[in-house]
Structures are given as C-alpha cells and as structure tokens.
## 1
Amino acid sequence: MKKIQISIIVVIGLMLSPIISVTAQSFTEIIEYGWGGGVINPKPCIFDIDNDGNLDMLIGAMDGSILHYEQDPENLLNFKMVSVHFNNIIVDEEAAPFLYDIDEDGLVDLLVGNSDDVIHYEQDSPQSYSFSFITDGFVPVGSMPNYLKPVITNIDNDGLADLLVGHGFNEISYYEQVDPGTYDFILATSQFNGIFSEYPGSFCAGYIDDNNLLDILSGSWDGLRQYEQIIPNSIYFQLITYDFENLETGNNPNPFIIDINDDELTDLFVADEYGKTACYEKYLKDYKICTKVSDSIAGIGVTQRATPIIIDIDNDGLLDMLVGSDEIIFHYEQVQSFSWDFSLISDNFNNIEYLNDSYLDCKDINNDGLLDLLIGMHFGTIKYYVQSSPNSYEFNFVTDNFSDIDTYPSARPLFYDLDNDGLLDLITGVYNSDIYH
C-alpha cells in the first residue's frame, strides 16, 4: 500500500474548566490542546498579517520551523491550518516568532528568536504573506546564551518600541528603540526587573485586566508567574503571583495575550513543551463562554489510556460509547436521548481482544448498512470486524491486517471524507507524531 507521510498538524480536544483568578474569577478555558500539536516546545504569536480582519497565529517549533494558522471567520475562537512551513523559514532550532511593524512603514516585521540570535524578516508588500530575510543579527546579543525569544511592546508609552529578549540565563534583556520608526535599539539592561523564567524565553507581555498596568507572564516548570507594572507607563514591575490563575499549563508553558474576537475580554494562549496549546478567555461576573460539565462523563472510570468512541450502534436513538482499556472494550449506552448519563452494557464487548495503545473507529465503510469496527494496534496494523446484522451489537472478526496497512509504531485510524468526493479517506495517526493518509 502506498503511504504518504505528513507531519501531524492539529490535535484537538475539548476539556473545559473554570479558572480562578488572583483577584477575582476571571478566565474560562475555551479550547485545550487546540493548535500546534505534534511539535515540541511550541511558541505562539498572533497578528493580522494580511489585514483581512482574521488574525494569524504563528507557532514556532523546536525544529526551527514555523506553523501558520488563520482565524476562522465563522468561529473567532478557532484557527485553521494554512501552512506547516510559513515562508519556508527554518532557523537552527527553537523558533520563537514575533510580529510587529517596527519602523511604521506599513510592512509587518517578523523577528524569529532561535538558538543563538534574533533573525529579522520583513513583509514584501502590505497584506502579503511573503516575507524576505533582512538580517540574522537584529540586536547584539554578545555572550547571551541560546534560546532567544523576542517580544515587542511599548512599556512606558513614550512612542519608542521596547524590545524584550528572553534568553538561556532564564532572564530577560531590555532594549529600547533609539528613534521612532527605526530599527536601531540599544541595550538598557540585561536583567529586566529581575523577572525570571525557568524555561528560556517563555514569557509574554500584555494587558490582562482593566487597570492600565502592563502584565508580564513568565513560564516556570509548573505554571505561569505574573508580574505587573507598579504604575502606568513605568518600566518597573512587581511580582504578583507565582501561579497565575492556578492554570494547569504543563511543563515550560509559552503564553501569549491578545483579544482575538474583539469582545474586550482578554484571551490567553498557553502552549506547553509537548505541542499542546490551550486557549482561555477572561469573563466578567455572570458572563461565561463555557464551563466544565464534568470531570468524568457518567462516572465512567477505567484504567489508563482509555480510548472512547461514540456512535448509535443499534440505531435506537441512544448513543453507545465504546471505551478501549487494557485488554478489553467496555460498552456503555446513553440512559436517555441528549443525556450525559451512560449505563454499562458490557465489560467485554464481543469478547474482542484489545491491547494498550490500541485505538477504535466505527463506521459503515462500504455503505452496506453494516457498521465496520476497526482497531488500530500497537504494532501498526488494523484489526477489522463487521456488524453481523443491521442494528446488532454482534460483530464478527474479518481480518487482523485491514487493507495491509502497517504504520508502525501504533495505528490510530479515523475515517472521514476529507474532500467530499464520496470516497472515505482513512487517516492514521502514528505514535511518532506523523499522520498517514
């Protein structure tokens, strides 16, 4: 079988949870693990590059590449993949992009921090996605260690851009623009306010609340530290908390602050080292975008690596949930239509042998009225069962090597008609973060 290997693009999950603020309840989790999946140490930045009203998200990866997403106009909290290699830019490693019109000429500047310097690119023409290389030493970094991340803002509101560069000493260097509209910056201090980031470059600047004080969020091994200006337009900051909002950000979080849907509520994007990016949105009292429904649907609790799928197997209007776990498949059925409650039907569905790191999908592949059950196995092959009769819970074994597919290590099958041509596409995720089509 011909195999086309592509890099994994997006791993999307929905696991919504309320967040508690330092001063008040203020953030709700909107999307967890939404963008940048499959890359290591993703570092997001957001800017409307082509000025079309839809924000662009660039995510720098450990391998030096930059992923490009654009905001979905139908759902402003969602971003769609545009390219896995923005402008074919590849830096040494640990790409950390930041977009800003530094010289105010209407062309967006792209700064990309990497293992040993800050590289400068500029937009070729207004509203274009095409950028050209300008220089590989935008600011002198001297003996500053590797893993540089640039962030530009106007801290003191003096009309001069301020450049903050996080680096491998776990500190932040502060440069200030010499004159407005120029690329000239001078180093003001290599230890900006004593702000400490346990992972090099994992910080961002923005206004979280309505007090007109700039905030800096800095990543640590287990959360985000919050620093805030002592007074408006000051270059001095004070530590507010070691654990901003008690967010469960994972290791080495890389934050980015922006209002992505122009609702005057701050959105916070947090990427962690394993390639997962979560989105949180600030909310006001009595105003929430979404809340957590449950820690455990229907109280279902099986062993580790549970892999659920939901489908109405017997076509009775009640959804069935199959949950693979250890060596068996659990079968639950919805108690009533539209209910979150499921009851256990069987703790060994069809006596199907199941192994850890196996993954389920169930569809009528050949449109014969019988559901097909596929189980991606740890060693890359796919087991295939077919429903014995329409609406039956009984499935018969067909083959342990469906279509001679072998995507070692592990196979995670998903059927979907991607191009709406009437032919199902089989997408198979692989343990090493690749996808076969």
## 2
Amino acid sequence: MVVKNDGRREVFKRDKILNGLIRSCDKRDISMERIAALANAVERDIRNTMDQEVPSKRIGELVMEKLKDFDDVAYIRFASVYRKFADVSGFLDELKELQARKKCEADKVAQAEKGIKL
C-alpha cells in the first residue's frame, strides 16, 4: 500500500511510476526498454526494502535517486514536477546540485585514472 501525503492509502501501481518516467524521458534518446527497466528497478527496491506500507514521498525520492544516474534532463524534469518548484531559484538550486555531483564524480574518475597510471 502507498500512503499518500494526506494520509489516504492506495494500492501500489507500477504504471504510475512508469508513466512519470515516460513523461520525464519524453524526446530523449532513451528506449522504452530502458525506461521499463528503470521502473522495474524502482518497484524491486520498494518491494525489497519497504514495509507493507510505503509513503508516496519515499517512492518519489527513490525515482529521483535512480534518475540522477540515468539521465540528467529526465531527472530535472521529474524533480521540477515532483518538488513543485515555486520559482526559478528552486530550479536553479537543483541544477547546481546536479552539476556539483557530476563534477565530484568526474574528479573521482580522474583521480582513479591517475592512480592507475602511476
């Protein structure tokens, strides 16, 4: 069961996750198979790590975590809807956080490559 923000309970529906991912990935060069695999991964994580009831907020956060490593544009699209940015500054903050994360990952790769060359 999914516990909504207002306390209502609904049956978990994988299609809701899939539809959100499809909208986020619209006009991106991402196959339907990859999108479906991502939805499957989210569902698997929910079923393996959650109790009988899972807050809808946790589902949204899990989707965002997966999208961060999947596609930057799809992540920002999903985040903008999920987090309901009130203004451009919220959107920019999310972009800055994503850029900082990508830079950190690139720095780690560069450091690892240096270590291999030595």
## 3
Amino acid sequence: MLFPSCQSNLTIELTPVASYTDLPASDAVCHDKDVPIKPAVDFNPGGGSTIIFMRACMTVSILTPGFGLGLALPKTNSDRHQLISSTTFMNEPF
C-alpha cells in the first residue's frame, strides 16, 4: 500500500473563490499525527457555476528523509512529511 490510513492522514479542503486567480493566501491544512483531527463543522459546496479551490494534504513517513524529495517537503512536528496538491474547478452547470 503506497499511502496507508487515508482516513487519518489525509485532509481535503474545498473553498469557493471568485475567480481562478483568487486563491486562498493561507497554508494548506495538514493533519499532524500527534494532534487530534478537527472534523469539518461547515461545508459549502457552492452552487452552479461556482469556482472551487480544492487542496489535499497527505502526511507520510518516507524512507529517505535526508535525500532528494525528502529534503524539499515540509515536515510536521511529529517528523512526518507533507505531500500537498491543489486544483480549481467549476461546478456544473457552466
């Protein structure tokens, strides 16, 4: 298994934005293994033709943290690495 325990290591953020260039200035929300997960209390899927910014963060332990990609990835307080990806899309109907 490449990424075990998605339920405890993956966070997904969905944020409605005004345009494709109007992205949130905040950092990605990544789960640290030593800190309890804060469940979502509000979810706004947006309406038709709403532009949504989506960001995902997976925290993992990597085999070679002192080489290559391991040196470039941000780390949590529990010494796990953060893999972060983001995209934007428009809700239907367009």
